[in-house]
């Protein structure tokens, strides 16, 4: 059970890092980089004064990785990469993570993320009605998660970078509200569901 919970937590952490990176790319994509229409709609009200260069963005990513005090060391987890699939891939069905040190759960970012999983905050099926994430219990859990994430060095570096580029407010509360809307607001992808 612990390995499964850690796998889910680490997966969600990877998703969070990808989401932060995607947000940074969407808000400061170098010229010639395609950004999806969905992302353009979300970020269009934001200023578009300056663009990132690939080198600037790579430096940001490198600094975020280096400054991540919560990232697990290679001794804290073991991955089973499996074998090369070849031209007719058939997934093995084995877990990617075979062992994880449970002490990772003591870090605030993982503990907050585990709370999201333990309380089944997200509904995976896009055609299922969901409760609003902006009120009640779900809001408190997600705010705890965002508070844990926003207190980290990678988050601070990303925010500083986006402020420097003129893409987001320097006010952290305004930025967190933007992210809450960007990441957690619900909408339907089904034709007759809300």
UniProtKB/TrEMBL annotation:
PROSITE patterns: ENDOU. Residues 53-194 form the EndoU domain. The keyword Nuclease applies. Keywords: Endonuclease, Hydrolase, Lyase, Manganese, Metal-binding, Nuclease, RNA-binding, Signal. GO terms for molecular function: hydrolase activity; lyase activity; metal ion binding; RNA binding; RNA endonuclease activity. Residues 1-28 form the signal peptide. Its cofactor is Mn(2+). Coiled coil: none annotated. InterPro entries: ENDOU, EndoU-like, EndoU_C. The keyword Signal applies. It holds the Pfam family XendoU. Monomer. This is EndoU domain-containing protein. It comes from Pristionchus entomophagus.
